[in-house]
């Protein structure tokens, strides 16, 4: 499991705009520190985003990244490589995933744990996004811990710990996790036999402490009184998309295991803005349910046709998910033109006698051109928005441009390199001689690296 997550990080090391806040906040904490005088250098004052986000996850991530970050002083590795290999902390998340598998083994047996690991490994979304700096992935850590603590409903203390963790996660990282509290608490009441007020104290204490923590920390970094998750804004989206689109893409039932996740998805479907990452927290429970179901199917008599079909179908599902993961992974590798362009630019002009002043377009900034790739201190990496191509070409300030393709390049500029990126998959109907030629990845030029002549 650890190797799979690291493979995704190394194969697709760049990030996109939805990951940028925590990524750049981690960068700023590492580079500038957290003293009041350092805050003026922070990126979030220049690009604040639609709503404030918490710094708590980024601070912890920066702290865990410090040993690797300091290695760059010895010129042994590049800072971008350090960050992606050492600071995205897939280790932390996968240790929790391993503990999760052990919890499944204790509750449902080793065979169910084996199926759980197979299902999780063969899926794309969880291993791929584990090492990424979305707020949902910070929330996902505690969500795994919750699953460990509710692996048995027979111990009241474990349920209280789980509900406290969910409360902390909802207050600090992702507010929608609060929608999971109600269904889980009600089911825990029926399983443990304790009244609902037995859980209220732990939830209340956790909530108050979490509000105090996030308000104190984030008000300091944002220089204003703020509770980031309370500032969240939801936008309209088709109802029930969580059921019809996102969950089937991520995983494959047991009534008792799936009741809280399904209730959570039903409630969150009534909200406006929805993405797959808003329901990622239910995937471990769905995988556990699938693993227990697979254990039951594997126990059926193999001398009957139904038993053989169900047994084979389980492994067929794993193979199908693995095939889908493969296609998603190679598409993701080719889906970060901004990161690739900035890497090419850094390598191409490392020996320049005059420090370049490069303008990075919005597309490049949104598809991987992060602060961690701004490796040269004397170079100027400019991300100023709303400058037309005509003004960029006419400006005497910029020596280089990383921008989208243009119909005509002025004589005073030349295209130094091009960067292709993923467009989609294309069926080749006549490619019947070789199976792997039936489906081909389609690419096109997404970015140009231009140099003033």
How would you describe the overall organization of this protein?
This protein has 453 residues and is α/β, with parallel strands linked by helices. Helix content is 55%, strand content 9%. It has 18 helices and 5 strands. The protein has helices at residues 2-11, 20-32, 56-70, 79-87, 90-108, 110-122, 125-130, 135-149, 156-172, 178-192, 197-222, 241-250, 255-268, 283-298, 305-333, 337-348, 362-366, 389-394, and strands at residues 357-360, 380-382, 400-403, 413-427, 439-452. A 5-stranded mixed β-sheet has the order 2-1-3-5-4. Strand 1 (357-360), helix 17 and strand 2 (380-382) form a beta-alpha-beta unit. Helix 3 packs across helix 4, helix 5 (90-108) runs antiparallel to helix 6 and helix 6 (110-122) runs parallel beside helix 15. It is globular, with a radius of gyration of 24 Å. The model is unreliable at 80-104, 233-238 and 249-253 (pLDDT under 50).
Question: Total strand count, please?
Answer: 5
**What is the CA-atom radius of gyration, in angstroms?**
24 Å
Helical fraction: 55-70%
What general outline do the C-alpha atoms trace? globular
Spatial sequence of strands, sheet with the most strands:
2-1-3-5-4
SSE run? HHHHHHHHHHHHHHHHEHEHEEE
Task: Give the arrangement of secondary structure elements.
Layout: H1 2-11, H2 20-32, H3 56-70, H4 79-87, H5 90-108, H6 110-122, H7 125-130, H8 135-149, H9 156-172, H10 178-192, H11 197-222, H12 241-250, H13 255-268, H14 283-298, H15 305-333, H16 337-348, E1 357-360, H17 362-366, E2 380-382, H18 389-394, E3 400-403, E4 413-427, E5 439-452
Helix pairs in contact: 2-3, 3-4, 5-6, 5-8, 6-14, 6-15, 8-9, 9-10, 9-11, 10-13
